[in-house]
Amino acid sequence: KQEVTQIPAALSVPEGENLVLNCSFTDSAIYNLQWFRQDPGKGLTSLLLIQSSQREQTSGRLNASLDKSSGRSTLYIAASQPGDSATYLCAVRNYGQNFVFGPGTRLSVLP
Amino acid sequence: IAGITQAPTSQILAAGRRMTLRCTQDMRHNAMYWYRQDLGLGLRLIHYSNTAGTTGKGEVPDGYSVSRANTDDFPLTLASAVPSQTSVYFCASSDSTGGYGPLHFGNGTRLTVT
């Protein structure tokens, strides 16, 4: 059974810092992995989707990498802004299975 | 704007009452999902449907039922609500016709069972 963890559970950084959020999964035979952000009281917004054949995906200041062999993905946020404050979740899909979500990392970017 | 519409946005329900949460998507995605989100437990899959006319059980299906009469609609029914079903419910969809596409979420329904 796929298990997904995210460390740290919470992170607080000053504005302008570059930061990395981590996602680990136990079963490396994944189909794809998706990163989301969730603002308080809101739904999940898709950030990036990485297919199993890809090593990374980029969107603006966000870069997500995937290392299947080690069961890890990282979300890199460059030049963080207070508007980046949210909870970031990763979700992993294996072949023939539904997505399994991690517990999320709560990010606070301080002005 | 294309996407997923959930209704109601919030509801307070007496225990024992029947309730249907509505979900409609206009992206023509074949797959749809219902999740519940609880503090400390994260997002858990309740039921899913890979295509119209079919449904499947997720991680926490007990006390819930779904139907998928057409591509666009995927209602979730609580036959007799209990306080443990107090949660935020999210509907999601994805296009899986050419492989597994990304998940898209609605804005959620906040349900309180008293």
Topology at a glance:
The complex is a heterodimer of chains A (111) and B (114).
Chain A lengths: L3 E4 L2 E5 L4 E7 L4 E9 L5 E8 L4 E4 L2 E6 L4 E6 L8 E9 L5 E2 L3 E6 L1
Parallel strand pairs in A: 2-11
Antiparallel strand pairs in A: 1-3, 3-8, 4-5, 4-9, 6-7, 7-8, 9-10, 9-11
Chain B lengths: L3 E4 L2 E4 L5 E7 L5 E8 L3 E8 L6 E2 L6 E3 L9 E3 L8 E8 L9 E2 L3 E5 L1
Parallel strand pairs in B: 2-11
Antiparallel strand pairs in B: 1-3, 3-8, 4-5, 4-9, 5-6, 7-8, 9-10, 9-11
Quick structural overview:
Helices cover 0% and strands 59% of the residues of chain A. Chain A is mostly beta strands.
The strand count of chain A comes to 11
| Range of helix content of chain A | under 10%
Q: Helix/strand-derived class of chain A?
A: mainly beta
Question: What's the Cα radius of gyration of chain B?
Answer: 13 Å
Shape of chain A: globular
Percentage of residues in strands of chain B? over 45%
Overall pLDDT of chain B = 94
Determine the N-to-C terminus distance of chain B. 35 Å
**Proportion of residues in β-strands of chain A:** over 45%
Count of DSSP H/I helices of chain B: 0
Structure description:
The complex is a heterodimer of chains A (111) and B (114). With 111 residues, chain A is an all-beta fold. Chain A has strands at 4-7, 10-14, 19-25, 30-38, 44-51, 56-59, 62-67, 72-77, 86-94, 100-101, 105-110. Chain A is globular and about 45 Å long. Chain A starts with a strand and ends with a strand. The radius of gyration of chain B is 13 Å and the shape is globular. Chain B has strands spanning 4-7, 10-13, 19-25, 31-38, 42-49, 56-57, 64-66, 76-78, 87-94, 104-105, 109-113. In chain B, strands 2, 4, 5, 6, 9, 10 and 11 form a seven-stranded mixed sheet that branches. Chain B has a four-stranded antiparallel sheet with strand order 1-3-8-7, with no helix packed on it. The interface between A and B is medium-sized, with 19 and 18 residues.
